[in-house]
Amino acid sequence: MKEIRFHGRGGQGAVLAARMLAIACVAEGKCVASFPMYGFERRGAPVVAFTRFDDKPIMEKTQIYNPDCLVVIDPGLLKLPTLFTGLNPNGTLILNSSRVFEKQPNENLKLAGVVNATQIAVEEVGRDVPNTCLLGAFAAVTGWVSLKSILASVGEYFGGDVLKKNLRCVERGYNEVKVTKWQ
Amino acid sequence: MKAKQGELKVMTGNSAAAYGAMLCRPDVVASYPITPQTEVVEQLSKFHADGILDAEMIEVEGENSAMNACAAATLAGGRAFTATSSWGLVYMYDAVLQAAGFRAPVVMANVNRETPGILAVSSGQQDMIQTRDAGWIQLIVENSQEILDTIIMAFRLAEDYDIQLPVMVNYDGFYLSYLAEGVRIPAREDVDRFLAVLKSQPQRTILDPAKPIGAGSHGILTEFMELRYKHCAALERAKNKLDEIDEEFGEFFGRSYGGQIEQYRMEDARFVILTSGSAVGTARTVVDAKRAKGLKVGLIKLRMFRPFPQEKLIKAIKGKKAVGIIDRSVNFGWNCGPIYSELRALTPEIGNMPMLSFIDGLANIDITKPHIERVIDDVYQASQGKSYQAVTWIPLEERE
Amino acid sequence: MAIKKFSTKYEAAWSDADQLLLCLDTGTWRTKRPVVDKEKCSYCGLCAIYCPPQCMITRVDFFEPNLDFCKGCGICAKECPRGAITMLPEGDFTS
User: Fold this and answer.
1) B261-396 has CATH 3.40.50.920 classification
2) Which fold has domain C23-93?
3) Per residue in C20-55, pLDDT tens?
4) Is C4 an 8 Å CB contact of chain B?
5) What ipTM score was computed for the predicted complex, to two decimals?
């Protein structure tokens, strides 16, 4: 089983990203469970989304305390003191940022994929909606789900022109993510 | 004859509730939005707008009207569905009592959330507990598939000629309402087939202009007592009826849930933990882990809360060494968990054994694996004759 | 039973209103910022009337938002009869 934790702010599409990932996993025959947790439902409020997938049905309904992968949609959230708490050894991070890491931010973090999803989204969609781009980066860095499945899952939520733009975001995230590895 | 497998779709618990209701072809849907239930109303409205749901959608100004409209619709012979949560459930309280007293077979999804008193937009079973004396059948489910399936079974149960009682299907707000999982959607014709038996039953008493009848005439003295007696007797019948329906559902759709309770690894268990709702899922994984370490613990999932499955619980727990109950609510006045105190009432039949109450998961607090590990350890110690704490408010405890 | 020291102060759900409430930094919620074109502004005051946190500051002949509290909801821009207010991404203003 893999446990992924998304960190974002209300309005950035964290919950939607977790949902799309769930759809992609199910399309590949996996079992999945995904849910968000937030306080007050408003733009800008911190949002966390928890996604688990496995080959067999997922029983646990708790939040995720030992993620295998963190997806951080708002770079400001890197300042969160509890962000890396409980990260599994050999942990992965997918980050929306314009800058790559100079040094390893946490000893359990062995793999990081950084992509300027905000810039890509603004270029392709015209708005700061970094979630679909980050899903592309996630597929590329982890290899846990295929690009094809992610693209199909995005299609469940958008249509027409908006869909085309978001699909481009996914592909750019997949192709342009910069990967850093640590021992 | 078996049902088709059904399309697999990723959806939230709320969406599953809407699908379950839609598939049963309700005649009337009257519902008012409230977090964490709102998506149920939105999805049903979407089904209606898309022509998938052919129901009278009554846009009510509040939950009180919603329940009155639904109860009245069923008394006129129709099928009605609504959904609510906490504050909404409390706002419709007099109508909820009316529906039960009238024996109006409404089906309602209640998304568990903390009740008024402390403003909390968060999960908790207090709203279900608050309504336990309303005379409704109350069921509690563990995951999105079970939400959809149980709503179908709820209509079958509510409208059964031998029952004729409203049914509330409870599921945890946030932890289940917003949980997206893969759910198999039964084919509509298969749901029609499953519910078709209701048409072959005698017609229940309904409002019909061609045959005038007084509705809600007040009872007095022994007449009143007779009606209460009949109501209680119907609740009793609902126990076996649910088991039968669950078995039929399993044979037809390929999924069954155990009826009143599900027993997990209970055959050779020496001590037991009991809980309900989403926490059951997590408890399964912890029970497996403890079993792997040699602890003979068993888990009981409480699915039917009203009527309280006395016989099943007595049979399951009698002879065990200790039992711990995790409640997601409080029993004001008894200073313990409510389901715990109801189980305690069965001590003469179960036998004297340590019974431990654990209160957890209020107001979105997560019932985590370490919490459940602690529960199992405490109940184990008690089963070994060691001293134990009767009531534990897990998150507030001083221990790490 | 040992309960750890309570973090709540009162018996019921009261909360202190003298400090935190009036100093809630709603300005950090913003993802878009209203920018007022002083030339277009006719000082009609509609933006100030509609502003939910009431944070429009009067200057001599135009209004501008108090950025400590402006949440970026955009109601002022929508209601301005002169189209003098534009909502711009907050990111444009940060380094």
Assistant:
1) yes
2) Alpha-Beta Plaits (3.30.70)
3) 555 567 887 787 899 999 999 999 999 999 999 899
4) yes
5) 0.93
Residues 6 or more apart from A177 whose CB is under 8 A from it? A94, A113, A114, A115, A136, A137, A140, A141
Q: What is the pLDDT of residue C18?
A: 67
Three-class secondary structure assignment of B174-216:
CCCCCCEEEEEECCHHHHHHHHHHHHHCCCCCCCECCECCCCC
Whole-prediction pTM value? 0.91
Interface test with C, best of A12, A43, A127 (most C CBs within 10 A): A43
Domains and CATH numbers, chain A: 2-181 (3.40.920.10)
| Cα distance between residue B396 and residue C6, in whole Å | 9
Q: Tell whether A147 is within 8 A of chain B (Cβ).
A: no
Of B169, B166, B156, B164, the C-alpha closest to B134 is B166
Task: Assess contact for B319 and B296: CB atoms under 8 A.
Answer: no
Residues of chain A contacting residue C29, judged by C-beta atoms under 8 Å apart: 42-45
Q: Which of C31, C89, C91 sits opposite A43 (nearest CB)?
A: C31
Q: Which two tokens stand for residue B25?
A: 């072809």
Domain B7-253 superfamily per CATH: Thiamin diphosphate (ThDP)-binding fold, Pyr/PP domains (3.40.50.970)
Q: H or E element: which one contains A134?
A: helix A131-142
